[in-house]
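Hi W.,

Here's what went into the run:
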Amino acid sequence: MENKRRLLVLIAPPAIVLAIFFLAPLVIMLLYSFKDSTFGPMLPLSVKHYMNFLQTPSFFRLLLDSSKLSFLTAALSILMAFPVAYFLVFYTGARRVILLTLLILPAWTSFLLRVLAWKVILGSNGLLNQLLISAGLISEGAPILLYSQSAVLITLVYVWIPFAALPLFAAMERIDPRLHEAAQDLGASPAQTFWRVTLPLTLPGMASAFFFVFIPTLGEWVTPTLVGGVSGIMYGNLIQDQFARALNWPLGALLSVVLLVLVAVFSYVFNRFIPITEVPVST
Amino acid sequence: MIKRNIGKWLGWSYYLLLLLFLQLPILLLIVFSFNDSVLLTFPLKGFTLEWYRQLLGARELLNAARNSLVIGLISSGVATALGTMAGIAISRYNFPGREIFLNIATLPLVIPYVVLGVAMLILFQALNIGLSLWTITIGHAVINIPYVMLIVSARLSGFANNLEEAAMDLGATYWGTLMRITLPISAPALVAAFLSSFTLSFDEFSLAFFLAGTDNTLPVYLYSQLRFPNRLPLAITTAAVVILVSAVILLVSEWLRKVGTERKIRRGG
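Here's what came out:
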């Protein structure tokens, strides 16, 4: 009984705050998606926006495109971070933490300004074009990359590599070195040791890395706005637009609900196979 | 052995290449903050401290920076307190509904911020609460609670309950034990959690964009400036300063950590 009271004192404040400021907003957002217009009354409920959504193929296309882009972003970030995490954990001994810190330092810089830096690099008078011109590869400055989906992809991969590296690093660090010795004593080649010992043990870290890059990228709208231009917009831009410019809040709410359902389905499936244990926190 | 050396050599090359890739854009910003031109293009025009001079007089920008600092401190404080309570509860109690609580409390980790921002905006509008720095603070506290909870519970699950049980067997009250055993045990986790919350809040844009009233945070202010090409140099100079400050903080905290551990060793010996 006494125990119960103590537990209640501990759990009630965070539970109440999360209920009011996290769960309630999501429920109200769901209700809002049935609202007829932004400024009108709540009742009667209307499925107008749902019909609109179902009859507009470009919504689906953008959702699919954004999912693909997020998948690519997560996959490429992991692909680029994996070798470096492997090298740091297994080859650099005690210096590995400071070497890792150097690598993830950029992640502490303003996200907006990191994106801005890429605008400077990819622009028509940017670093990349200047390099290509002086190398004689292109004749004159053309914004070959800025304002495209590739620009969004490059920038996002750049932004996420440090966050992908953290869970990979943590997972590899936890591997008992004796397992490698055992594998080699039993006659495994280095390649076999990698494929059959190291990689399987790194899988949970890789899954976390994928998850924590894929989900935020799916809701991205800032990077596409800054470096993507018209051809590089993502599904998140659609949502942002309903609130910032079009002022169609019910449609925006509906688009958010759809994204939320997608994320929920994805999280559920994901969690069934690999429970989330690694959370990339930069300290 | 030779193979291992080749591996090491390849590893170092790749590490340096990736380091260059990750740091170059940051260096670029710093270089341009000294460039004597409004345009962020090559070739560089010449050295100037003009942007730094202008920064000192940029009242709106400094205001926004101060807002971000205050929001960061308050929201991280709140998140650390609430997240620690939740962390202790889930690592020290087995209660019905624990799984459900855990699932809901970690949900803010996986929700795209654009969705949460929009949802909170609708809530505040429905409750007739005007947007202000407070609404941003609430948003930032909510997204940081799960991080704190996971960091604290990870720390606590590394310690068995014995210490707390011993304290209570020796006559300490439950809350006394909590204050004098459980919290000191979690102290490193609390500091780490607070710092990571602060970092997240200070830089968070997507949520703040939807929840900001007339007062801006630094990221919201910078975003509003990005539309005007002639204001970019000032934005970049801000970035250079933030980079410098965080590098100094990082070095100081590393140094403090070192001094702290050395003292401990000396005292022990």
